[in-house]
Amino acid sequence: MTKIAIIEDDATISQMYRMKFEADGFDVQLANDGERGVELVKHFAPDIILLDLQMPKKTGHQALQEIRAEPWGKDVPVIILTNLGEEEAPKELRSLGIESYIVKAELTPRQVVQRVKDTLGT
Predict the structure, then answer these.
(1) Which of 20, 46, 103, 114 has the highest local Cβ count within 10 Å?
(2) 3-class DSSP state for residue 76?
(3) Alpha-carbon gap, residue 35 to 95, rounded angstroms
């Protein structure tokens, strides 16, 4: 079963994505801030991460820097899922190795699931 970590501070949004991904056979774990997200990824070892940028305790950018600094986090695919336009995102984000950048308002949850499947080649 494909494991996905969703790191998102809006509970309504994360639950909606959880339902969509579970309906498609994914094993889903959630974290509601960047700090918990780093811990989740460390212990859950997901196949892919959906990461919001604007969160409490640690931003998505800070969390991704920490994840990429660890041997276990260097190669895990990350998709940024945020309401920030790409031009508002930290410039260094791309250098941290993200697979895709999605503005939440631009894609339906079904399209996000498909983007994840395309990224994983499933």
Answers:
(1) 46
(2) coil
(3) 21
Give the Cα separation of 84 and 121 in Å (integer).
27
Distance CA 112, CA 118 (A): 10
Are the CB atoms for 1 and 27 separated by under 8 Å? yes
Q: How would you label 55-85 residue by residue, b for 16+ Cβ within 10 Å and e otherwise? A: beebbbbbbbbbbbeeeebeebbbbbbbebe
3-116 to CATH, choices 3.40.50.2300, 3.30.1330.40, 1.10.287.600, 3.40.50.720: 3.40.50.2300
Task: Give per-residue pLDDT as tens, 6-57.
Answer: 999 999 999 999 999 999 999 999 999 999 999 999 999 999 999 999 998 9
d(CA 49, CA 5): 5
- pTM for this predicted structure: 0.93
Are residues 64 and 36 in contact, defined by beta-carbon separation less than 8 angstroms? Answer: no
